Amino acid sequence: MPITLLWAVDVYGRVYSLSTAGQRWVRADDLLLELKRVTAGKGRCWGIGCDHHIYLNIMPSETSIRYREETYENQRWNPVDGFTDVLLPTDRWPWSDVTGMNPQPLHSFQLPSCSWEWEGDWYVDQSCGEPGQTGGWEYAVDFPANFSPDKKWNSCVRRRRWIRYRRYTAQGTWAKIPLDSPKKPPLPLCDISCGGWEMSDQSGRYPYLWGVSQQGQVWFREGIHPRVPEGTSWEEVEVPREVAQLSAGPGDLLWALLWDGNLLVRTGLSLDSPTGISWLEVESPSKEVEALHVAVGVSVVWVVTKDFKVWFRRGVNSHNPCGSGWISIGGEMMMVDVGLNDQVWAVGEDRGLYFRMGVTQAEPSGNGWIPVSAQWGINKELIPPRDECEFSGHLTETSQGSAPSGTDSDSEEVKQPSSASQQDAPKAFIPASDSFINSLVSDRDRTSTTQPSITEMPQEDGVELPPAPVLPTLPATGHDVPFMNVDLEGAGAARSAQAAGRSLSDVLGTLENSQGIGEEDGPVWAWVSGGGCDVDASSRISWLSSTGPLSSSLSLTPVQSAAWSEQPQKPQHQEITRKPLERSNVSKVPYQSVWVRKGALRWWRDWKPQRWVDVGVALEQSTKSDGRKDSIFFVYYTQYDEKKYLQVFINEVTALVPVLQDCHYTFAVYTAERTKQRWPLILAAPSGKEMNDWLDLLSDCCCEWRGIAGAPTKQALWSTTSKGDIMVHEPPLSLEAAAHPLACDLMFWRQIPGHLRCIESNSLGLVWGIGWDGTAWVYSGSFGRQPSSGNARPSVNPEIHLQTDVRSVHVYENQRWNPMTGYTDKGLPTDRPMWSDESGLKECTKCSTHPPSPQWSWVSEWAVDFSVPGGTDKEGWQYAADFPTTFHGHKTMKDFVRRRRWTRRCKITVRGPWKMVPPIHLSDISLMPCLTQSKMEQVPVWALSDKGDVLCRLGVSPQNPAGSSWLHVGTDQPFKSISIGGANQVWAIARDGAVFYRGSVSPQNPAGECWYHIPSPPRQNLRQLSVGRTSVFAVDDNGNLWYRQGLTPSYPQGSAWELISNNVTKVSVGPLDQVWIIAEGVPGFPTETPGSVCHRLGVGPMAPKGLSWDYGIGGGWEHISVRGNSAEPLRGPVPPPGGPSRSPALQRPAAQ
């Protein structure tokens, strides 16, 4: 790590530096130099002197700073004298710059300041042509034209360049920056800030310098360059109101403090526009107390208010320079400064220097304050925390309404201390050149504060007091000099506070042999700048580790600082994890902190043309003083060279779902508003591990905020997506309330590890699922979260199992017949692609078709699929009259098109809380729903094999969820859907669409006795059904939802089918007869991916068919099961949710 410096100014205006490789403070060589404040950057430090001049200190370097001055000598040829400096009136100047527009004779060049010296005299640049032959001349036909070293017959003008170098000689010393001339210089400056050397779009650039005048104007120093470190001139930047102080970060952040305590943020800062575009106003962290000081870094903003409280700004980024909110940080500071690596330095209320411990990119707010303890004075004694020094007491009543003064003083007068002992001398004022310090005490009533004299302090008997030196005072106490004086009432308070613990001779012992005010008694700091100090949280700096850490939750008064530092400190082993650092302290008072996780993803942008955009993302979590946590997810992008951002509050996230899109590792972030708009935030990660890490992290924050932890409850709603992911929702009691039910778009879904095609549950906690390959899986009752790959210890959870799934991917080969060649792949212009998906709308070839997601891998080659519904010929072809019609497996005279399906198998392997139930592969499964108070020794489970056989699982119970064996139930044809409802009602659908009811099913006879045929709806072929406690719903091949009327205990088969709605793919009826479906689409959003969760509203004993639909999360959902939610809704009126009415019946279009 390179050796860098920490700069500080004490209240006397003396400037000190502290090296990261050293152990003691070093005062500036110029003992007469007095500065008000300093601002440091890489390799340099700027300061404001008491004479209102700007000073610059460039760090010594082996490479000298040289600047080349150049001017051009121009001549024109005439027939009499040849080439001469007598030019035409329209020509350029005889001596000019390269453009010829500005005159530049040799004698006009002057050194910009006394910090420069000439290296030599002017000489001709001989780089053109052969050295010594052309004399450095370049020839052309006329001005302006292209010059060349070759003289031709038509060369009528010529020029040559003169060069002279000057060298900067003030490296390592404080050099005065000259006032602008002939331009008007700014009014006397009261604040400066250096920054901008690490612009986000290009690093390693030269720094920028900003200043604030005493009249509240903002100025920008132009022309700062590596070869021109002083800059050239000042440019005024318009501000809406008067500014008191500002801070520029190493990047493109600039914040300013107004005189009224509010803050301004400069937007549009860039290399092309170093002064920015506009100002935005940000309110002070506290409405009651005004802001006093602001400091910014690369992506952080810190503020101190007039009650000395420290605040941290959340969400600050170059895309969002204003941030999103304030977090209160422990400690009582007078000013803070943000240095390199966003490290934070501060001057405490006790005038000591402090460093913010634990500041990292993951935790930018840090986790504690530690004092800066370095050797001081000629005795090389270690500077302890300020509570051990003379000026260690509290500053008296803090300023509540002070504002920086608008004037400054040009001089500073100090009286020499009297040699005579003066016991009744009043408390002294310590002069300082600092407008910031003066603002702290400008509103104090000095006359109303009674200062104790030395004789009033308690003394021990027999102790003889030595003569006490008198600290210097101002000539007239009734005339305050603004920006120059500091009322250190804390010095008197410190003496009074510590007199009870030690004798007066101990307190004043450091003053007896003092050589000068403040020389031996330790520094009384007024300002610190760490912009040039390269340290971070892992740095091992001797003067940052001499004392223990100070808890950030403590108020850093000297007494508490001393109490903390006296306690034995345990070594801190910091490790950056994915979760916020949790710490405890002796005071048992929780502190506020901010934790950040950043990364780079790709975003499927919201507007057209839609495409993938590289973005930066950040998850920021803040911990409140009461332990509560809230998080914000940011997405930073650039549009037309303008930096923008999106923010999603974690408490508004309703689902985090992996999705299928362009074979990326893609996931979608849903909120209630984005669910209504049917446009989730879609992000893609470069790898599967990174996607899983972000999903786990975001899901943990969502669950933590909602108070959800561990395995799903027995009442949970289960669902699967078309990708095979398993989602769970914990239902509140208001989900099925008759009045003001929970809207579907507000439901929070979380992911459970595993991979299934369909899933079923009941209220006893039993959950069964079926994979795409037909394998049956039973839920083991664990949450199933895998440990991160970075964890060296393997998982010891016995409920986590290896789960595999296999599915087939299909493409269709299409052909058309013509009389010349027969069937060929040359179709009509209006035909579907010759290689397509089943719908024929999307072109899919064998080469361009990939597994459903990168988690899948191929396990077979492409082959013709002969098991296509409708049958095939011996080559796998199906025939039809045209596209699209119904295909059949034999050719007729009217068949002019044909197709065949190619298939390829792929496999996925995951780990989750699922145990395989061998050996039969299933196509459908159903568990009997029951109420919460139900007691059953064995739970009826019915299933269908992949061949259509009906099975009944025996021995299933909460203690043995997998059961013991399968019992075959005889049928005369294969079935495709089955469901068991309340009172052991078993309904099933055969593959030909016929509906059957199983009679005499009971706990004593779990397989029943016989099947009763139920007529299907007219001209409809049912494909799936679900049976609740007293109702039966079914879905046909056309997506229509049917309700079975007339079900009674005496006649459980019902009487007739009634059409309820269309646009349905799956239906699930719960133990309370609640109805949920997977809708094909949402009305008004035709482009959305099929598969949306939908809730039937108004279902009750008097209205079993319900009234309307409430559409929830959607786009790629495959299956839902609500058969475990048996929680009865609250009786009586339920207060509606806050905000405008969200009644789905009034705002949602009904699916008719």
Chain-wise SSE layout:
Elements: E1 5-10, E2 15-19, E3 26-27, E4 35-41, E5 44-49, E6 54-58, E7 66-78, E8 82-84, E9 95-96, E10 116-118, E11 123-124, E12 138-140, E13 157-168, E14 174-176, E15 189-195, E16 208-213, E17 218-222, E18 233-237, E19 243-248, E20 254-258, E21 263-267, E22 278-282, E23 291-296, E24 301-305, E25 309-314, E26 325-338, E27 344-348, E28 353-357, E29 368-371, E30 375-376, E31 381-382, E32 430-431, H1 435-441, E33 485-486, H2 489-499, H3 504-507, H4 509-512, E34 525-529, E35 550-551, H5 558-565, E36 593-604, E37 612-623, E38 629-639, E39 642-649, E40 653-659, E41 665-671, H6 672-677, E42 681-685, H7 688-706, E43 717-721, E44 726-729, E45 749-752, E46 758-761, E47 767-770, E48 776-779, E49 801-818, E50 822-824, E51 835-836, E52 857-858, E53 863-864, E54 877-880, E55 897-912, E56 914-917, E57 922-927, E58 941-945, E59 950-954, E60 965-969, E61 975-980, E62 986-990, E63 995-999, E64 1010-1014, E65 1022-1027, E66 1032-1036, E67 1041-1045, E68 1056-1061, E69 1064-1069, E70 1075-1079, E71 1092-1097, E72 1108-1114, E73 1117-1121, ...
Antiparallel strand pairs: 1-2, 1-34, 2-3, 4-5, 5-6, 6-14, 7-8, 7-9, 7-13, 10-13, 11-13, 12-13, 15-16, 16-17, 17-18, 19-20, 20-21, 21-22, 23-24, 24-25, 25-26, 26-27, 27-28, 28-29, 29-35, 30-31, 32-33, 36-37, 36-42, 37-38, 38-39, 40-41, 41-42, 43-44, 43-73, 44-45, 46-47, 47-48, 48-56, 49-50, ...
